[in-house]
Structures are given as structure tokens and as C-alpha cells.
Design goal:
single chain, alpha+beta
Amino acid sequence: MRLSRYFMPILKENPKEAEIVSHRLMLRAGMIRQQSQGIYSWLPLGKRVLDKVNAIIRDEQNRAGAIELSMPTLQSAELWQESGRYDAYGKEMLRIKDRQDRPMLYGPTNEEMVTDIFRSSVKSYKDLPLNLYHIQLKFRDEIRPRFGTMRSREFMMKDAYSFDLTREGAEHSYNKMFAAYLRTFDRLGLRAIPMRADTGPIGGNLSHEFIILADTGESEVFCHKDFVGFDIPDDNTDFDSVEGLKAIFDKWTSLYAATSEMHDEAAFNAVPEGERLSARGIEVGHIFYFGTKYSEAMGAKVQGPDGKEHFVHMGSYGIGPTRLVPAIIEASHDDNGIIWPASVTPFDVVVINMKAGDQACDDTCELIYAALTKAGKDVLYDDTDDRAGTKFATADLIGVPVQIIAGPRAVANGEVEVKDRKTGARETMTIEAAINRFVA
């Protein structure tokens, strides 16, 4: 992608409305634009990151056996009246009517709709277990949207819903998602700690929030500091192994960890003083087991091996991609801008032409750009005629991990400079070596 042809509206000044680092940097880097209170457009640079976040989430959901579908954003109020949540959900739900005066709503979550899909299609225990998920825009009319896309009214959610014949089967499904979430956040460059949490309007009696520690976190969290060093489930994790996943769950819940709503001061004080960790946290995922709450209310039953009908046991599992992007920035930035993990960076490399119009610089940059693009790398080529300081500031601001800098003097010697965005380390090497480093 040539920067001269790309839409990336950089802001030179810090926006006054931005209260936290991620909101400020996302606006300055031209990743998002506010359309109204708590509602944002994702501009090209931001969407590239969001798409990569979603790809990792999707990969780990599929690995764990979840099956993707797509459900509509607008839902019939009848389903929510059937479950008893239509009136109970409160003012966060956006209620509307269609031209036939039928009550509708902009879905804040999809337990009712997916239960309706299940009950109309699945009749036998032989079709279980089943886990259905989608990645979709949702709306909750937050009383105080803030911090950019960290807490917005319209947001994207990956929500999955599991169906099992028994509680034991449902707990295994819960453990699948538990392990999948640990893997997902690790691949996004985050250390997420699962903490006992309140179930809220979703309901149920088993729930964990996945929290990353950050100074700008919305709430205080409490945990044992050993969580920071726990091993993440690896690529060979067997998601069909009941014992293996139970061992992962048991390990990651063996030490004290709780959000402020579930905090037990006495239990926390029982942790040795040097092992206690009290910090601010950002919620990046939330999982629930709620038994037969929705299946009983909505008649979702299957025939069991005993020939009798049984209400299915259910769980739901949410991750907010539009919340994850600012969370990653909160965890990875410096005074100059964003520092993207390689897994979600909008571009792998930015090639900076220090003297656009100079034949040697132009030829060198075109050569590098073509070679890296052919090798499958996402490359941003800064071919603008901006000043050197502006080019460097832009490259640092948008956080691309590697900068390849081509200036007249270096190019005359057959060389370019390669800068690591995270460490700031610079290395001069031949043009061929620079290409080979990233295509090998």
C-alpha cells in the first residue's frame, strides 16, 4: 500500500476528548472517527487491525470446535419476552418498532435467538455437544460511553453459545472456551488472567472474566502474582480431552483471582503479602455457564439416551474485538505512539523513502516494496514528499514493527537502515540483506 494513495487522516495534536492513551492514539493515528456519542467508524488502518484480531479469535474458536454462523442484529421482542429478559434488561437495550408496530430491539446479546435456532433444529442428544458462534455488531445504550471503543454504545462481539445434555458435558464445553481464551489473548500479545466474576444480566452461577492488567483499567482487581508466569496451553492442546482441559482449568483457578464485585478480602489476605497483586484491570472476555435457564424458559429440549426429553445445559462466551484493539494499545505503547504485536499489526513493514523523486531512492524503495509484497508481507510504502521528521513521526505513531529507511547517502552505498519500532535499535545493511531478512 502506497501511503500517498492511502486514507490515513493523521492528527498532529492530541484530541481534547481523549481521556486515555489508547483513545488518543487511535484518533491521532487515523484508526477511528467518532460519529456520535459512543459510536465510531473504523477507518482503514483501524479496520486492518480489527480484521487481524477477528482472524485470531475465529481461528481459536474453530480449533476448540465451535461452529460459525451469522445472526441478525435486529431481534424480535417476542423472544426476549419469552425468556423474561425483555423488561428486566433495562435501559441499555435499544427498543424500536417496525412499520407494522411490532416491538423489535437492537440485540445487546444473542442467548434468546440462538436458543430459538437450536430448539427448531436439534431434537436428539446425538447432535450434542454443539457450540455456535458469530462475530457481530451489537448495541448497548451505555449511560456514560467513554474511552473511545473501550466502552462504546455500538461494539463488535464474538459471542459463542454451547449446548450439552448434562452439566458435566457443559462444564467440558466451558473448559474448552476457557483454554481457547487463554490461547487467543496470548496470540494477541496480552496476558489475560481469568477471575471469578458476577454473572450480571446473563445469569447463571459460574462465570469468569478475562482481565489484562493496565493502569487505565476500569476497575480494581485482585490476584496472586504467579498468574503472570503461568504457561499458556500450546498448539497441541487436545480440546476433546476432558481430563486435559480440566487440568488447565484447575491450574488457572487454583490461586486467588477476583474482580472487585467478587472480591473476598479475607481470602485475599490469606495470600502471602509478597504474592498479592492489586491493580487496575481491563475486561477483554467473559464466559458464563447458566445451566437450563434459557432452555427451560424457551422449551429447548432434546431426547436423551433414556428416551426422555431433557432441557439442554447452556453457556455463553464473549470477546469484544473492538475493545481488544484499545486494550492492546494500552498494554503496548510509548511516548511516540503505538507498538503493535506482530500478530495484529496493520502492516508488517513500513518502507520510508527519505527523498521521493530521487531516482536511486525511488528505485530502491520500489524494489524492496515489490519483493516484500510478493513474499506475502503487508507493506506500507511511504512515498510522500513529507519532511523526514514527519515521516519518522508517522511511522512511530502507527506502530508498524519494522521500518526500512532508504536515504540518498545509504542507497549510494547499496544500503538501507532497518529500525525495530519496539526497541528503537537501528541497523545498516545491504539492500539484499534487508529483503532477505523479511522474505526468508
